[in-house]
Amino acid sequence: MFSSFMLNTWIVASMVAVIAGIVGFFVVLRGATFAAHALPLGTFPGAAAASLLGLNPVWGLVVFAGVGVLGISELGRRQRHDVATALTLITLLGLGTLFLSLSSQYSQSVYALLFGEVLGVSRADILPVAVAGGIAAAVILLGFRPLLLSAASPELGAARGVAPRVIELVFLGAVGLATAVALPVVGALLVFSLMVGPAAAARALTARPVLAMAASVVIALGTVWSAIALSFETNWPVGFFVGGLGAGSYALSKTGAAFLNKASRGRTQKTFP
Question: What domains can you pick out in the chain, each with its CATH number?
Answer without folding.
Answer: 4-271 (1.10.3470.10)
